[in-house]
Write a structure and sequence with these properties.
Length: 512
C-alpha cells in the first residue's frame, strides 16, 4: 500500500440516498452508433439485479485502487432513474491537516468535464436564436483566425472537435499573481489551421475556448458569470464555479491535488486553467455533478428548473462525426464511448493532479461521476473504477473472436496522433508502435506500456484483459487502407493516429 502522509490509512465517507422531485426520465431519441461489421458483445441491464449492492462493490474496488493505483483522495457519485443512488468519498482532501474527503462538500477539479457546461451554455444561445450551428465562427469573434484555403470553421465544428486546429500547450499555470483572462490569452496564442474543418476529429481545447467566448460575446456576460446564472444556480449547483482564483467561500472545502514522491503523497499548488477557462477550470462537488447528470438525463430539467429544451439535449447526445467506420465517435460536445453495449456519452477530464470521468447511459437513466487525485497511477485508478462500474451494471460479455482474412492488411510500425502542437517537431517516443506477432493478434506499444489486442472483425480488434470478464472492452480499428492508413481507439474517439512510414524509433530520435 502506498503511504498516506505519516502512515495514515485511507478512509471511507458516505452520503445517504438523496431523492429529487423530478419528472420521470424518458429515453432520448439518439441515432444509433455506426453499424458493426463484426460480432458484437452481449449486454443486459436489470436495475434490480445490477444496481443492488453497487455501493459495496464500488467500496471494494476503491480499496484496491487506493492500495495499487496511488489514490490519495477520490469521490464517486452514481445516479439512476431521477435519484442520486449514493455519493462516496475516499482518502483525504488534505493529508497534513488530517481532513478526509467529505463526499457532500469536498470540491474536486473535473478538468475537461468542464466543457460539458460550455457546450450547454452555447446550446442555450442557439435555442435563443443568437447563434447558428452553420455560421462561420468568425461572425462572433473580434479577432482574426489564421487564413486558410478552404471552408470556414463553423460553430458545428466546435461541437464536433473538427475545426482543424493545431493543439496548444501552456494551458495550466500555478502562479495566482499572473493569471491571464482567457479572452486575452486566446488572442495572443492562436493555433495554426492544419486541415479543412469538418474532415477529421482532433480534440481541440482552443475550439472549446472559442465556444465559451462566443457565449460571452453574444450574451454580454462574462463567461463565468453566465454559467453561474444560467446553469449552476438553476440546478442548485451552489458549490461549483469556473472562477479562478477559487472564491473564498469555497476554498475551505477544496481538495488538495497530490503527486507521489518517494512513496509519500506531496500536496501541489492549485492549478489555474485560466488561459483556457471555458475548457477546464471548474471546481465542483460530487453532488453538484450529480445534479447536472440528472438534469441531462431528464431532458434538460431538474425539478422546476429547465436549462435546455428536450430537443437540445437530444442534439448534444446525438452522433456528429466519427473518424472510423465502425467505432463510436463524437456526439455534440459529449464523447460517445460504447462500442457494442448500451449507448454511453460523457467526458473525461485530466489536470496535472486530478483525473475525472462523467459517463451517462441516456436510454437507461444511469450515470456516474468519479474524480481522483494522487500519484501518476491515480488516473488509471479512475479508469479502472469506471470500467468496473460499467461491467457490473451492464454485464457486457467479450465480443466473439474473428478468424477471417482481412482484404487489406494494415501496415506495421509507427502511428502518430493528429492531436499535437504542429509548431514543434513530433516526438518519436509518443508514437504508437504496432506489431503483429501472430495472425489476429496486435501489440500496441506506447510510452506507458504495451497492450495486446485480439481480432474481432475485419481490421477491428479488442483489448485483451487479464480475466476477460466485466468489460467494457476497448476496441481499435485500422481504416483508410491502403492509401491513408490510420487507427483509432473506441475510448479515444477524439483523435486518430496516422501511419508514419520509415519513422525513427525513440532511441534513434534521441541521438539527433
Amino acid at each position: 500500500m502506498f503511504a498516506i502522509g505519516r502512515n495514515r490509512m485511507p478512509v471511507f465517507t458516505t452520503a445517504s440516498r438523496l431523492t429529487f422531485a423530478l419528472l420521470a426520465a424518458a429515453p432520448l431519441a439518439c441515432p444509433a452508433a455506426a453499424a458493426q461489421t463484426a460480432p458484437v458483445a452481449a449486454t443486459a441491464f436489470d436495475p434490480d439485479a445490477h444496481l443492488g449492492g453497487l455501493q459495496d462493490f464500488v467500496d471494494g474496488v476503491m480499496v484496491e485502487q487506493i492500495a495499487s493505483r496511488e489514490v490519495a483522495g477520490a469521490v464517486v457519485t452514481v445516479v439512476h432513474d431521477g435519484q442520486i443512488l449514493f455519493t462516496r468519498g475516499y482518502g483525504y482532501a488534505d493529508i497534513d491537516q488530517d481532513r478526509p474527503v467529505d463526499p457532500m462538500q469536498t470540491l474536486f477539479r473535473p478538468g475537461s468535464v468542464s466543457k460539458l457546461f460550455t457546450w450547454t451554455a452555447l446550446m442555450q444561445q442557439i435555442e435563443a436564436g443568437h447563434v447558428s450551428l452553420d455560421d462561420d465562427v468568425a461572425k462572433y469573434l473580434d479577432y482574426d483566425l489564421p487564413p486558410f484555403d478552404g471552408p470556414p470553421i463553423r460553430v458545428r465544428d466546435l461541437f464536433q472537435h473538427t475545426p482543424g486546429l493545431s493543439d496548444i500547450g501552456g494551458i495550466i499555470v500555478r502562479d495566482p499573481e499572473n493569471l491571464p483572462y482567457y479572452a486575452d490569452w486566446m488572442k495572443e496564442n492562436i493555433p495554426d489551421r492544419m486541415w479543412a474543418p469538418g474532415t477529421e476529429v482532433s480534440y481541440s481545447n482552443y475550439g472549446s475556448v472559442i465556444a465559451g467566448y462566443i457565449v460571452e460575446r453574444v450574451s454580454g456576460e462574462p463567461f463565468a458569470d453566465y454559467v453561474e446564472k444560467h446553469i449552476f444556480r438553476p440546478l442548485g449547483m451552489n458549490a461549483s464555479t469556473f472562477r479562478e482564483p477559487l472564491p473564498a467561500s469555497l476554498k475551505a472545502n477544496m481538495a488538495l491535488g497530490y503527486t507521489l514522491e518517494d512513496g509519500q503523497f506531496v500536496a501541489q499548488p492549485y492549478e489555474f486553467v485560466s488561459p483556457v477557462l471555458p475548457a477546464g477550470s471548474v471546481a465542483a462537488t460530487a453532488p453538484d455533478m450529480a445534479r447536472f447528470m440528472l438534469a441531462m438525463l431528464n431532458r434538460g430539467q431538474l425539478g422546476d428548473a429547465r436549462i435546455l429544451k428536450p430537443e437540445s439535449v437530444e442534439f448534444l447526445f446525438s452522433d456528429s462525426f466519427a473518424n472510423t467506420p465502425n467505432l463510436p465517435g463524437m456526439a455534440h460536445g459529449f464523447l460517445v464511448y460504447n462500442e457494442a453495449g448500451p449507448r454511453l456519452v460523457g467526458h473525461a477530464g485530466n489536470t496535472g493532479d486530478f483525473h475525472s470521468d462523467l459517463i451517462i447511459a441516456p436510454e437507461h437513466g444511469f450515470g456516474f461521476f468519479v474524480s481522483t487525485t494522487g500519484g501518476q497511477e491515480s488516473g488509471a485508478g479512475r479508469t479502472d473504477l469506471g470500467h468496473a462500474i460499467l461491467g457490473r451494471v451492464f454485464s457486457e460479455e467479450p465480443t466473439p473472436r474473428w478468424t477471417g482474412t482481412d482484404a487489406v492488411q494494415p501496415p506495421l510500425g509507427a502511428y502518430r496522433s493528429n492531436r499535437r502542437d504542429y509548431s514543434k517537431e513530433p516526438r518519436a517516443e509518443y508514437d504508437l508502435k504496432v506489431s503483429m506477432p501472430e495472425p489476429h493478434l496486435v501489440l500496441v506499444e506506447s510510452y506507458d506500456g504495451t497492450t495486446a489486442w485480439e481480432q474481432i472483425g475485419p481490421n477491428l480488434y479488442e483489448k485483451v484483459t487479464a480475466a476477460r470478464e466485466g468489460g467494457p472492452f476497448t476496441q481499435l480499428e485500422f481504416y483508410g487502407l491502403p492509401d491513408n492508413p490510420r487507427l483509432s481507439f473506441s475510448d479515444h474517439p477524439y483523435e486518430t493516429y496516422h501511419f508514419v512510414p520509415n519513422a525513427p524509433d525513440a532511441a534513434e530520435a534521441g541521438e539527433d
